[in-house]
Amino acid sequence: MQMLERMFEVEMSFMESESRDIAILTKAFHPDVVIHEPTSLPYSGDWKGLPGIAGLMQAMNQTFSKMAIEDLTCAGSAERLHVSCFLHMTSRATGVEIRQPFAQILRFHDGLLIEGTPFYFDTAQIENALTDSSSAGTSAAFSR
User: Fold this and answer.
1) Which backbone phi and psi does 80 adopt, to 5 degrees?
2) Pairing relation of β-strands 29-37 and 45-48?
3) Cβ-contact 91, 62 below 8 angstroms
4) Start and end of every SnoaL-like domain (predicted)?
């Protein structure tokens, strides 16, 4: 769990910094890191290396005005974590709020993230919220 907390702290430090210096990411991300985002999202693909992680964070920041998690649960080992939570996102383009289950498999090497594979509950819902301005100010929420 410490690795995950450090990763979140580093992400926040990077996004809050004016320079967006990639050196900040070295505290939590392996130089050979890769994140596999689903093809159905606007920031799809394999984001590789520290420049890739920086690009992914910037792409997500351009897509969502708010991202938050709740009910974070982790299981696994120092090499592999299985993470689940509820993800809250607000589309920057439409203002639509999204709340849905989210899971991720994270692999670590020497305490640094080397691979991440996220699983969004409903990427079609996310894509619709990003493009459908007729539902601005509404919430697309998953019910438990």
Assistant:
1) -145, 125
2) antiparallel
3) no
4) 18-115
| CATH number assigned to the domain covering 2-141 | 3.10.450.50
Residue 118: CB atoms within 10 A of its CB come to 16
The pLDDT, as a whole number, for residue 138 is 54
Domain ranges, ordered by start, for the chain: 2-141
| Pairing of β 97-109 and β 80-91 | antiparallel
pLDDT tens string 2-25: 888 889 899 888 888 888 899 999
What pLDDT digit, counting tens, does each position of 100-122 carry? 999 999 999 999 999 999 999 99
